[in-house]
Amino acid sequence: MTKLVVIEFDELKNFTRQVIQEEFKNAFSPKADQMSGGDERLLSRAQMAKELDISLVTLNQWQKDGLPYRRLHRRLYFVKSEVLNYMYSNNKSKKKG
Fold this sequence. Notes:
The structure is a single chain. The chain is mostly helical. The chain is built from five helices and three strands. Strands 1-3-2 form a three-stranded antiparallel β-sheet. The chain starts with 8 loop residues before the first helix and ends with a helix.
């Protein structure tokens, strides 16, 4: 038999807030493999353009063509390994076609 528990609104609100904060921390904190030297940190548009040695205009065009990025609030970020994997797979498909 299931026991029914009544939760006050403020308790529910605080619990929900804690869960959301925890999820955000987990989503944007460095993972164990990232801390071991991986390139999994989020890069800004300027940082990504510098890494690829391209202009921001070129980066913008590549985004329109499908370069993977992440949006956090109004800002765009890139994960270097995702970008490199995309570029590698795109380059292979262009060579086949």
